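Review form for a predicted model. The reviewer records the input and the model, then writes brief findings.
Reviewer: anonymous (R2)
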Amino acid sequence: MTVATDSLRNGVGPATGTTTNDNAAAGQVGEFVTATVPVGSAVSLTTAVVSNMTSISLTAGDWDLNVQTNFNITGGTVVDVRMGASPTSAVIATQAVNGVVGTDALVISPLGLAGATGVYTLGSVDCRISTSSTVTIFATALSNFSVGTVSVFGTIRARRVR
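Model under review:
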């Protein structure tokens, strides 16, 4: 038996999505939410201060979430960079624990660069966000540096898995 209506979603039957190269509708399996900060709009960081790169709003459900952050370093002495996803504005990213964002740092990269200039890219592994109501997820970043400048640009994306 094939079911092709939304009336059997939410545990009663199969969820609909899309069977072509378009986007799944809001609330359906496969729904895709994304926000991108281009290099020309990079967010300046202050050393040892967590900043929001961007954010997305996710409605109730289970989501796979991924963040890619590009650290644009100019003439800097950089000790480390950190990035990921957080349900709290300007709080360092944490990884999922039991379906919610937890307390362990998601991505930390010790750099030890001196006088560096260039773009250093970090990407997170997919993490699960399970929420019973609409939640804002922030792509956050932090860098510890003593000279130069550091800014961030990149993308946060999520796909509804159920």
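Findings: Residues 1-9 have pLDDT under 50 and may be disordered.
Further findings: The beta strands are 32-37, 43-44, 51-58, 61-86, 94-97, 100-105, 107-123, 127-131, 135-145, 149-160.
Recommendation: see findings above.
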